[in-house]
Amino acid sequence: MCLSVPAKIMKLEKDKALVDFGGSQREVSMMLLPEAKIGDYVLVHAGFAIQLLEESDAKKTLDAFKEIYENEK
User: Fold this and answer.
1) Residues 36, 17: Cα–Cα separation, whole Å
2) DSSP one-letter string for 20-54
3) Number of domains in the chain
4) What's the CA gap between 6 and 44, in Å, rounded?
5) Domain limits for position 12
6) Which positions ≥6 away from 34 have C-beta within 8 Å?
7) What is the pLDDT of residue 1?
8) Which CATH number is 67's domain given?
9) Per residue in 8-63, pLDDT tens?
């Protein structure tokens, strides 16, 4: 099973970005989305940003993940 997760770009440097997954930050490759900019939401899979997302769609997905996590406690 493959899973991709929305994240917000916090910092860009060459072909790498620091992204935030709703509290957890990671560095990802931006090689596939050179047009992305700080503040954009992207879909991340296997360490690569693979698609730009609308902010509202990204937040809905992140909220759903958060709800699932809270219900598992």
Assistant:
1) 10
2) ESSS-EEEEE-TT-TT--TT-EEEEETTEEEEEE-
3) 1
4) 6
5) 5-72
6) 15
7) 62
8) 2.30.30.140
9) 999 999 999 999 988 889 999 999 999 999 999 999 999 999 999 999 999 998 88
